[in-house]
TrEMBL record:
Start and end residues of each Penicillin-binding protein transpeptidase domain: 356-635
Regions of compositional bias (Pro residues) in chain numbering: 661-681
Gene source species: Geodermatophilus ruber
Residue ranges of every copy of the Glycosyl transferase family domain listed in the record: 77-261
Catalytic activity: [GlcNAc-(1->4)-Mur2Ac(oyl-L-Ala-gamma-D-Glu-L-Lys-D-Ala-D-Ala)](n)-di-trans,octa-cis-undecaprenyl diphosphate + beta-D-GlcNAc-(1->4)-Mur2Ac(oyl-L-Ala-gamma-D-Glu-L-Lys-D-Ala-D-Ala)-di-trans,octa-cis-undecaprenyl diphosphate = [GlcNAc-(1->4)-Mur2Ac(oyl-L-Ala-gamma-D-Glu-L-Lys-D-Ala-D-Ala)](n+1)-di-trans,octa-cis-undecaprenyl diphosphate + di-trans,octa-cis-undecaprenyl diphosphate + H(+); Preferential cleavage: (Ac)2-L-Lys-D-Ala-|-D-Ala. Also transpeptidation of peptidyl-alanyl moieties that are N-acyl substituents of D-alanine
PANTHER family named in the record: BINDING PROTEIN TRANSPEPTIDASE, PUTATIVE-RELATED (PTHR32282), PEPTIDOGLYCAN GLYCOSYLTRANSFERASE (PTHR32282:SF33)
Domain of life: Bacteria
Gene Ontology CC terms: outer membrane-bounded periplasmic space
Protein name: Membrane carboxypeptidase (Penicillin-binding protein)
Keyword presence, Transferase: yes
Protein family (similarity comment): In the N-terminal section; belongs to the glycosyltransferase 51 family.
């Protein structure tokens, strides 16, 4: 049987000090146990414990602290966990019988005989530790340890943590009283299971399931005798006895547990002798992901989700990390993966230029994917990490994508798609000014006839036509309000200022724009005028599988928020048919986004000095924006929205759209003019 290596025994003075440190807590526990009948009253000795004990704290009447919350994608696959303690509670039947026995033999040999306190066991532990020269047995029963660990791990204030750990007779007495009460209320099987689910095994693993995964990569139900003995030996000093830190010491502790199991007849001498010469062979499983930095997929989506849960739904961070919630989200892993490939296929990870792809479902507001050529993280020295959610933040302008809002306002005012304007090159606004100077605008390139209809001007993306159309409207308020109603929420903080300052440049999209807001606004067109607030979650359940509630017990409202006719359906369906031409007609600026056999509506955008390029494409099923810009400084990104922007959109959406039957847009609610080219495919 295993014995302490004489060369590893402490020197006399250190040994004496260690003995003193080991004996004092045990002596305190012993004293508490011996004095308890006189402190709580003589009736205790007569067996009338229930009437004399204080009520159990709620922490001890509840189940084991549930630990981590699980975040799932729309298809049920894992995105990440949130936890402060890595714990996965399991039922008694999910723990190997040999693990239960090893823990009892290692920690509390008379567990099935006592009623929460064990004076005989405390005395034996005192003698054993004095003889061994170190702490080989604890003085507290498993029930007492369960009380201490539960109170410690559920503590929410420094005072509660102090009360759970202070070295005082009062704490020992309270633990003893609560241990007796637990034994009155719960079966031995329940107490042992709760203890195995709460005890710390080192390596960040709380509970036997997490420990089995952390050290051996197996579930607790599959632990072998050797593995169970090693884990049981960790509980007293998990850091020092870890096989990952000190394999020899872990082997010594494992063999000590095996010896005790054999001595009590729970395994044979031969079983112990066969294992003892063998080294400890840990095979650690991967640590479960924690938070958005560790997300398996969609780190930036996860960040948006976390903020939505805390800020919009009122779920606290503590509840998120320790409430055992199950959060079902709207993330489409297939679209997320396709988008990740698309952005990285066009711009490498960590490139100074950021490429964002953000997708929303028209008619529901479900956020389907958020991709960036970055990893979500907080290491500022790593150019491949970014903690600012570039899919949500408003940083650069989206260029001519804003012309759609001017067109929507014009159609609402009764100006038809056939509305003809002849605009000079350059065009000098009759309504808007650049400070005290006239507001003058040019087109980019020479492919713009001076006389255009609204329909053709939108497909060609004529700057001069749309400033002239703003002149015709007489105020920028209509386009600004149309954009807000459609869901361009990044405009809200500056909308009134744009109107008050009569910024004719609005149609050219210089305002800092959130990629998510841009996708949201165009999804309103895809839903024929119904605007839905972008939402990343569909269901949140508590640890019992019930819908999560607020402090009053009312279920938290998680449904989608939609506004029918945010713009008239006739306007939306008309714009849809016009914008199909942007990808389908030779005169369109977004032809790279075309997917044969499917109607793709879209609009390109390029901001002033090409500090950003954008493309928004959509169908009745999907709306997604692409923006490319430098998030750290102004930089000419090169090209236009119909180049890299449309290409990323195409590469992301091709496998998704092609896998489904075509979803054509409904006919226009306002008659269009004569065809501008071949019919869209």
């Amino acid at each position: 049987m295993a014995r302490l290596d004489p060369q590893r025994r402490p020197r006399p003075r250190l040994r004496a000090a260690g003995l003193l440190l080991g004996v004092l807590p045990l002596a305190g526990a012993l004293l508490a146990s011996l004095l308890l009948p006189w402190i709580v009253g003589p009736g205790l000795a007569a067996g009338h414990t229930a009437s004399l004990l204080e009520p159990l704290p709620v922490e001890l009447t509840d189940a084991t602290p549930v630990g981590r919350s699980t975040v799932l994608a729309a298809d049920g696959s894992l995105i990440t966990y949130f936890y402060s303690h890595n714990r996965t509670p399991v039922h008694a039947g999910q723990i190997a019988a040999v693990m239960k026995q090893a823990m009892v033999d290692a920690e509390d040999t008379r567990f099935y005989e006592h009623r929460g306190l064990d004076v005989q066991g405390t005395l034996r532990a005192l003698v054993t530790n004095l003889s061994a020269g170190t702490v080989r047995e604890g003085g507290s029963t498993i029930t007492q340890q369960l009380v201490k660990q539960t109170l410690l791990q559920t503590a929410t204030t420094p005072e509660e943590r102090q009360a759970a750990t202070e070295q005082s007779l009062g704490r020992k007495l309270r633990e003893a009283r609560l241990a007796l009460a637990l034994e009155e209320k719960y079966s031995k099987e329940e107490i042992l299971t709760r203890y195995l689910n709460i005890v710390y095994f080192g390596e960040g693993a709380y509970g036997v399931q997490a420990a089995a995964q952390a050290y051996f990569g197996v579930p607790a139900a599959d632990l072998t005798l050797a593995q169970a003995a090693m884990l049981a030996g960790l509980v007293q000093t998990p850091t020092a006895d870890s096989p990952l830190a000190d394999p020899d010491r872990a082997r010594e502790r494992r063999n000590d547990v095996l010896e005790r199991m054999a001595r009590r007849g729970h395994i044979t001498e031969q079983q112990a002798a066969k294992i003892e010469p063998e080294p400890v062979r840990p095979a650690p499983g991967p640590a479960p992901p924690n938070g958005c930095v560790g997300a398996v997929i969609g780190g930036f989506f996860c960040d948006f989700l976390q903020r939505h849960l805390v800020q919009n739904l009122g779920i606290s961070q503590e509840q998120l990390e320790n409430g055992g919630l199950t959060i079902r989200t709207t993330l489409r892993p297939d679209l997320q993966a396709a988008a990740d490939r698309a952005v990285l296929g066009n711009l490498p990870m960590g490139d100074p230029l950021a490429a964002t792809f953000t997708a929303v479902e028209p008619g529901t507001g479900k956020v389907l994917a958020m991709s960036v050529n970055r990893r979500f993280g907080y290491d500022a020295a790593d150019p491949a990490q970014e903690s600012v959610n570039l899919n949500v933040a408003a940083s650069q302008g989206a260029g001519s994508t804003y012309k759609v809002f001017v067109a929507a306002a014009a159609l609402e005012r009764g100006i038809p798609p056939s509305n003809v304007i002849t605009a000079s090159e350059p065009y000098v606004s009759r309504v808007y000014r650049n400070g005290t100077a006239p507001y003058v605008v040019d087109n980019v390139g020479d492919n713009y006839p001076p006389t255009l209809t609204l329909e053709e001007a939108l497909i060609r993306s004529s700057n001069t036509y749309f400033v002239a159309l703003e002149d015709q409207l007489g105020s920028v308020e209509g386009p600004v309000r149309a954009a807000q109603r459609m869901g361009l929420f990044s405009l809200d903080p500056v909308a009134d200022t744009i109107i008050a300052q009569r910024r004719g440049s609005f149609t050219l999209g210089p305002e800092a724009t959130s990629p998510l807001a841009l996708a949201s606004a165009y999804s309103t067109l895809g839903a024929n005028g119904t605007q839905c607030v972008p939402t990343p979650v569909t269901e949140v359940f508590d640890a019992n599988g019930q819908p999560v509630t607020d402090s009053s017990g009312t279920p938290i409202p998680i449904g989608f928020t939609c506004t029918p006719e945010a713009v008239p359906s006739a306007v939306a369906t008309t714009l849809n048919q016009i914008l199909v031409g942007d990808t389908a007609l030779p005169i369109g600026t977004g032809t790279r986004a075309a997917i044969p056999g499917h109607q793709i509506a879209g609009k390109t955008g390029t901001s002033q000095d090409r500090f950003s390029v954008a493309f928004v494409g959509y169908t009745p099923r999907y709306a997604a924006s692409v923006m490319v810009f430098n998030p750290k400084r102004n930089q000419d990104v090169g090209g236009f929205g119909g180049g890299r922007g449309a290409q990323i959109w195409h590469d992301a959406m091709l496998p998704i759209v092609s896998a489904q039957p075509p979803a054509p847009f409904p006919p226009p609610g306002i008659p269009l003019g004569p065809p501008l080219g071949p019919p869209p495919g």
